[in-house]
Structure formats: structure tokens, C-alpha cells
Amino acid sequence: SRRFLCWKVLHTMTTASIISALQRSFSRLGPPRVLICDNAKNLNSSEMRSFLDSYGTKLENSTSYHPQGNSIAEPVHRTLHRLARLHRLHSPGDLKKALPKLVYVYNCRPHKAQSPYYMLFG
């Protein structure tokens, strides 16, 4: 399902750390056909493109300064923010500890009749 959320807290946003996190995700779930990202240099580097090419994953950039252009990620962010407020998570430490549960709750929510968790794992 394209609505299944995978997450990893990264302490640095270098191309190498992002590639490492993606490798772990790809080894568990397989690579996506398309990876949509913003226009950040670390996501559009030749190293990142080469890595994604090796998995047959196409890199697409969302429109700069136009969050509505990323119609998949923005609703996820809004939902996670809403869940964090609902659970009264205010500090980064609280959020980091609760993130696995918030992602699980998100993945169990139905999206067009079936939850992403069900779509992925049955």
C-alpha cells in the first residue's frame, strides 16, 4: 500500500545516513517503484540517484515551496502532528519515544476501506 508508513529517526541528514536507513527498509519490505522527496541536495545527490537506480527506484521531486504538491507526505505529517497533540507529546524526547506507537496507530487506520497494515501483511 502506498499509505504504509516506515520510519527511522536520523541524527544526521547526510546522504550516507539516509541511504543506510533506506537500505534497511528496502531489505525488509522491498524497494518502492517511486520515491518522492523534496529538492534537498542530500536527496538529489549523484550518490542517492545511483543507490536508487541500483534498486530500480525512480526519484521524483515535489514542487518547491508548494507542500500541496506532495499530496502523500503532507497528510501523513498532519496526522502524526494531530496524534502527537492528542497524546500530549510536546518535547522532542517524548515524541521520539512515542513515534513507534504513533506510526503503528497510523498504519492500522483504514485508508479507503483497508488499513495499510492489512494491505501489507494481510
Automatic annotation (TrEMBL):
Domain Integrase catalytic per the UniProt entry, residue ranges: 1-122
Pfam family, one: rve
GO biological process, alphabetically ordered: DNA integration
A GO term for molecular function: nucleic acid binding
Protein name, per record: Retrovirus polyprotein, putative
Species whose genome carries this gene: Perkinsus marinus (strain ATCC 50983 / TXsc)
Taxon lineage: Eukaryota, Sar, Alveolata, Perkinsozoa, Perkinsea
